[in-house]
Write a structure and sequence with these properties.
187 residues; alpha/beta; two-stranded antiparallel sheet; 7 helices; 40% helix; 13% strand; globular
Length: 187
């Protein structure tokens, strides 16, 4: 789906209309350039970014003090934060995220959700976020689409109107949606 949205592959059937000319992509793995520092990796996609913009991006993802570190000197979560900051520095109207927190432990996932929200609040771009983690979808999504196995179809759609910053996994509405999603998946 993300490859069709990005234009990397054509749909096998039908048409896809994309109004975004500039798309940024965050993959499951960080795909950082090993010979570049955190600062240089983020700057690589937008050389016009000011020092102030770069400082703000690095601060928003919690990498202040690590600007001159190379990827090999960082943890997996730090590398992924760098990758996300780089995607936002590209200044695309549409950001595609393919299970970006997949390899992270449970606690780090929630820290990454907070870092992502910090950047999103600053840029307000559209994000298509693919995940197998229901909690991530509940905390980040405005619309959640539950998809079937191949051939892929939308099984059910959920809309969440609550502010992302006010959401809690203990909230009754989110618990109800979570249970409905699970019901869709275990049929």
């Amino acid at each position: 789906m993300l490859n069709i949205i990005s234009g990397l592959i054509q749909p096998s059937k039908g048409d896809f209309l994309n109004k975004s000319e500039k798309i940024s992509y965050v993959f499951q793995e960080d795909r950082l350039l090993p010979w570049k520092t955190v600062y240089e990796n983020i700057l690589a996609v937008n050389k016009k970014a000011s020092r102030e913009q770069m400082k703000m991006l690095i601060d928003k993802v919690g990498l202040k003090g690590f600007e001159n570190y190379h990827p090999s000197q960082l943890s997996g979560g730090m590398r992924q934060r760098c990758s996300i900051a780089r995607a936002f520095n590209y200044e695309a109207k549409l950001l595609l995220m393919d299970e970006p927190f997949k390899s992270l432990d449970y606690n780090l996932r929630f820290a990454m959700i907070n870092h992502l929200l910090n950047l999103w609040e600053m840029k307000q771009n559209s994000i298509v976020f693919v995940t197998h983690e229901i909690d991530e979808a509940l905390l980040l999504g405005d619309r959640i689409l539950v998809l079937s196995h191949t051939p892929t179809k939308v099984i059910k759609e959920f809309e969440i109107k609550a502010s992302k910053r006010e959401r809690s996994l203990k909230n009754e509405m989110l618990i109800k949606i979570r249970n409905e999603i699970i019901s869709c998946l275990v049929k």
